[in-house]
Amino acid sequence: MDDLQDLYQQLILDHNKSPRNQGKLVDSNRQAQGYNPLCGDKLQVYLHVEDDIVKDISFEGSGCAISTASASLMTQSVKGKTVAQARAMFDSFHQMLTEDSASESDESALGKLVVFSGVCKYPARVKCATLAWHTINAALGDASEQVTTE
Amino acid sequence: MNPVSSASSLDPHRLKQDFPVLQQESHGRPLVYLDNANTSQKPQCVIDAVSNFYAHNNANIHRGVYDLSMRATQAHENARGTIAKFIGASRPEEIIFVRGTTEAINLVAQTFVRSRVGAGDEILVTAMEHHSNIVPWQILCEQTGAVLQVAPINDAGEVILDAYREKLSEKTKFVAMTHVSNALGTVNPIAQMIALAHEKNIPVLIDGAQAAPHLPINVSELGCDFYAVSSHKMFGPTGVGALYGRFDLLDSMPPYQGGGDMIRSVTFEHTTYNDVPYKFEAGTPHIAGAIGFAAAAQYIVDIGYDKLLAYEEMLLDYATQALTAIPEIRIIGTAAEKVSVLSFVVDGVHPHDVGTILDQKGIAIRTGHHCAQPIMDRYDIPATVRASFALYNTKEDVDALAESLKSVMEVFR
Ligand SMILES: Cc1ncc(COP(=O)(O)O)c(C=O)c1O
Question: Do B356 and A122 touch (CB under 8 A)?
């Protein structure tokens, strides 16, 4: 049970139950779709980028608790950041989940997103947590095609 | 229920002892393996059959004049005979060894059916097919201009027979359907469905991948033209399976792949093909696999399908009741005729999360679309959790599942 609590932390469960910034963004000027073929999860990320700043962001789609909470928390973390900052967050987030330990500085840059650090102990679930980030990365690079986690 | 089984009923606790992989712990608890529809575990006798072949009889087949090669050839052909008997073929030559059900279906699509369909012709499948009984037909349709038709299912997950009958038209040149649905557990009334197709002279292939571990198969009684099985779903090795084809049909078919063993003589000007079934078995086959496959078939026969059917029916009822008692659970696939496969969704919890939590409790279970995305679309769900039981699963396994599902509800309270 302890292990499960590492994964399903309260913040994750909360964002899964009531996701923030969910729905279509009317004035989006960039978007991308993400797809995880393993579980069939599809996710749409909408961005409004102006003067190199993510002015607004939302996501649509349904998935497991990890991917929904990750998308929800991502929208909160990225809103108001510059494109470069958002990309840097993607890198640190990805590193935290795929490398044994994130360095201190990385963790501080991630803020609330560190709740996902437990996911690295569940290799089968890493892709759930990174789907939203792969998708925003594609949207920032104004690729409008689908990205997959495979 | 008396836990001590009499001689006339199957004893799953004893059978479980035959499977070395099941004697382990997972996350500190005894492993409860409930992913049998994905692949089954292997009894010691199958493992021994494979390793004995490599330890004592290994040589290539059909090629050597020496004793070892002849022994290997004999063992391989004996395996063919065992499988022929196992599924009720009238002669061993009607069995083609393939990699599995997927290859069997592709073989029939690209030989028998391809030589018989043209633009505007129709191939009929059902709405509950595995991707491996959909995609080979879509490829064929692209190649030939034929059209794929789909017989719909009702909410319980049963083919709507009237609609199926209506889909059998003048244009229908082939029917390919599953005996048992891997995602829903439904057993189709294939004898009746084959007869309906045959009334219109339409040949039929049955995908038997999920049937063999649960139900006796008799292709002669069914009257089907082709029947495909995978060894690994019925306690045998991976990488091998069988295609049954009616002899006269096989004899009329062009070859599938070219290579060694499938030829009688080769010159650069002209090649003559070997006889059925070798014509369809190009290259060195999975010899040890075929031998293990036969050992698996024999293992089931020795247990007896009558006992197996009675036991699994009881287990399915028990599991269905246990899951129905949890209000958040909705079972997907409630056909009147089912094998021991239970697909379900948990209200408010994604199947993937259910799978992770069950794994922490030592329960191996499949979550996802089960290679049957059209079924998920039919029920408008992204995925299900699927518990699929085999002859070594016990009521205790079901209890562990039900108990662990309650802790899923706790995490997601
Ligand atoms: C109904 C059905 N058909 C076909 C297959 C494909 O079998 P294989 O992967 O052994 O070729 C499966 C396997 O999941 C199945 O369940």
Answer: yes
pTM score, whole prediction: 0.93
Output the six-digit token pair for A127: 């892709």
**In angstroms, what CA-CA distances link B363 with A83, A109, B168, B175?**
43, 37, 43, 38
Calculate how far, in angstroms, residue B310's C-alpha sits from the geometric centre of ligand 1.
24
Instruction: For each of the domains in chain A, give its residue range(s) and CATH number, in order of start.
Output: 2-148 (3.90.1010.10)
**For chain B, what percentages of helix, strand and coil (3-state, to nearest 5) are there?**
45, 20, 40
Q: Cis peptide before B351, with omega less than 30 degrees from 0?
A: no
Contact, B81 vs B92, CB < 8 A?
yes
Residue B406 touches partner A, C-beta closer than 8 Å: no
Cα(A109)–Cα(A96) distance, integer angstroms: 11
ipTM strictly over 0.90?
no
What are A60-77's pLDDT values in tens digits? 998 999 999 999 999 999
B141 is catalytic: no
What region, left, alpha or beta, does residue B98 occupy, with left being phi > 0 and alpha being psi -120 to 50 degrees?
Answer: beta
Q: Calculate the CA dihedral of residues B238, B244, B250, B255 and round it to 10 degrees.
A: -10
Kindly list the structural domains of chain B, giving each domain's residue range(s) and its CATH number in brackets, ordered by start. 12-30+304-412 (3.90.1150.10), 47-301 (3.40.640.10)
Express each pLDDT in B272-299 by its tens digit.
999 999 999 999 999 999 999 999 999 9
Question: Ligand 1: distance of its center to the CA of B208 in Å?
Answer: 8
- Residue/partner pairs of B396-400 with CB below 8 Å, 24 or more apart: B397/B32, B397/B34, B398/B315, B398/B318, B398/B319, B398/B322, B399/B322, B400/B29, B400/B32, B400/B361, B400/B362, B400/B363
Look at B356 and A7 and tell me if their CB atoms are within 8 Å: yes
CA B70 to the chain's CA centroid = 31
